[in-house]
Amino acid sequence: MSGQPSTVPEFPEWPQFGDEERAGLIRALEQGQWWRMGGSEVDTFEAEFGAYHGTPHALAVTNGTHALEVALEVLGVKAGTEVIVPAFTFISSSLAAQRLGAVAVPVDVDLDTYCVDPAAVAAAITDRTRVIMPVHMAGQFADMDALDKVAADAGVALLQDAAHAHGAQWQGNRAGALGSVAAFSFQNGKLMTAGEGGAVLFPDEETRERAFLVHSCGRPRTDRDYLHRTTGSNYRMSEFTAAVLRAQLARLDGQIEVREQRWPLLARLLAEIPGVVPQGMDPRTDRNPHYMAMFRIPGITLERRRAVVDALIARGVPAFVAFRAIYRCEGFWEAGAPDETIEAIAARCPNVEQIHSDCVWLHHRTLLGTEQQMHDIAAVLADILAE
Questions:
Q1: Is 52 a catalytic residue?
Q2: Which of 169, 266, 318, 369 could make an S-S bridge to 374, C-beta 3.0–4.6 Å?
């Protein structure tokens, strides 16, 4: 431990933007039509984002939570159905199902990758299960091979929560090319952002068109007589949001390249610190955009973890405690919760009980830093843990 607390030089800011975003906003402004039905930015963004992820069937929406809601609705989720979700995730994964009146069923995750455990998913399927929702945690794909089999055997749909997985690849394929629906977020902290926004990728045009109706109050694109064909709401993305996201998409590959260079170094350095265990990687995720740099400190108390995070922030490292297990959030129990106690769910989610208590994550902008900064992060953490 050094005599003076070490600090890390300032990391790149987030969000990143420049003349490309400015030009896009002016382009959207000057086209004279600022919503998707009259402009061209949303249509163009959908085509570009879909092509980038391996499908021509993309739909842009207002935010990532709405992306999940729209996807779940077109997959038949409603009152009386169940959606299986990882218990370790941001709570939008479960709330999107609960807002539709469905029951969200939390299951355990893998202790190494933090992604949903296919065996736990299989054990949770009932005759009411409509959708299995894996979350690609921090850009690491869930085990899509195993989950595809579980879903096919049970006759239920898969919905990828890909809010962390822009540009990620599973055995050479991006989320839109895997044969299932995938939902993305463009919230301010995400790998590409316009402050808010979302998108859903579909494996076929028929499902995408049903989703279009849902996202536009049930009204077809060419309707002039207010013939609303289905229920829905207004989930339409604005032209300004799409213009910014087109520029952000153009930046994504270069940023992923840097993060993929930095994470192996940082993970190795973190693993050398006694008591620190970095998130594991499934090699079938052959491109990982690294939305978060995650690691565990097994055995740490909640109070001590909070103190470690505070100390990291004070020394220049943007750090956060990990997501709370969704069943340990009050909001989870307001509607659409399973007929179980917290203790019963916790008993079948032993890995989640560990991860949500001892995990720390660093903002992905840390992985846009220099190689020296990766050494600095590890040195700062080692200092803090030795105090």
A1: no
A2: 266
